[in-house]
Fold:
Amino acid sequence: MTKQTFLKGALILIFAGMITRFLGFINRIVVARLMGEEGVGLYMMALPTLFLVMTLTQLGLPVAISKRVAEADAIGDQAKVKRILIVSLVITSITSILFTIIMVIGAPFIATTLLTDERTLYPLIAISPIVPITAVSAVLRGYFQGKQNMKPQSFAQVIEQVVRITCVALFIKFLLPYGVEFAAAGAMVSVILGEFVSMLYMINSFKRKKRIKVRTNFFSYLKSSKGTLKELFSISLPSTGSRMIGSVSNFLEPILVAQSLAIAGITTTLATKQYGELTGYVLPLLYLPTFITHSLAIALVPNISEAEAKNNRKLIHYRIHQSIRISFASGAIATIVLTLFSVQILTYMYGTGSASPFIVLMAPFYILLYIQSPLQAALQALDLARPAMWNSLIGAMVKFIVLFILASNPNFGIMGVAISMSVGVVLITLLHLITLQNAIQYSIPFKDISKMILLILLTWGTGTLLKRMFDMFQPNILFFLLTLLILLIIYLGFLILLRFVTREELKQLPFLQKWI
Structure:
């Protein structure tokens, strides 16, 4: 099986993430254009419930599988790898069936009582079959990540988005005449089909590249897997705690938003519309660079796990620092572009720039989000998943307190929700950094912090100048894209000038090897 280095594996995931994010934005544009803000609001209100059920089903196993497979593979223990797979498949099979049934039975209560909009019932029912599909995919993802082979997962991501975007317009157009709630359910069905085809590809990749036969002596391996189960749960349960906190937070968020805005005197229809703008238009833009940071985090877990098994503390520090540096570089340009050109981006993508104030407020704080994933991955790889879970819990609690206080105040309303989200992001990231400092004495060097500040200032000044030039001419999308391209080229120059990207890292890029 092909094994990649940390940076090569991350680059494969980043490239696939770039494609899937691009296709995902096309999908969102199609959904937004066809269903409108109200339809997007119903769609987004139903998704947190799905994410919660998926978190409970997977029990944090992908991260645990990745870490334990990497450790076992390092010493050539293929029997242990097989036990890891068998235990993981049995656990996820049981939990996926259980929570799918609970989701279907509880959908009416969730829709009418918690989400306060009975129309969300249809999207909730429509999305339920995806749970067992994603459970199997999660186990296979963890296996390939542990083997440090990121290609199968990357191809599967692209396939999933292609299938989804092919089907979504068809289902929405077919069901929209019956009501916006049925159109939202149709959008959910396209998600299921994409995940199903993606799962089939992962299974096929596993069959072609595996060196172990899962079905051979299945039950004997299962009986001897008590120790393996404990090892997996020592990572997966705290990881599940972190993810569950995020999922419960996302599940409760629309409920608390709806109730808080109702206290502020905002009607249910207007609250759904405003929440749809914030979560359907703004958050996807703010989360755009996270395909890079998430890719780095995935590649970081098995790499640090291997370094820790060899007691190579120097390599651990270097990998964390490397991932933070690259993550910040990817997030800084996105922050500046979104802040300066928020109206233009929203207008060209969704046909309205009304959500611009959200972006201007949140983007400067969300720059810390882009280093959060690598930090959490490092904590999990170092068996510090439990402190990471507590950090997430503290951040979620503070976010909800701020949300209720501000959103229920008519002077803040939906803007209070945006403020609370920013507070949560900043707090969790800082707590992760403090935890790493206490555990392994890791801290970001002052020299690099100075470089980060200088990079922001230089890029902001250049972007402001380019925006003034853009405003002087008749705005059109081609000139807008050209302006962004010029800013990106100049930004890359700043990265090289400030040595955010090293010569050794550039040598790992296949298309640059002969030039460096």
The mean pLDDT is 81. The CA atoms of residues 234 and 383 lie 8 Å apart.
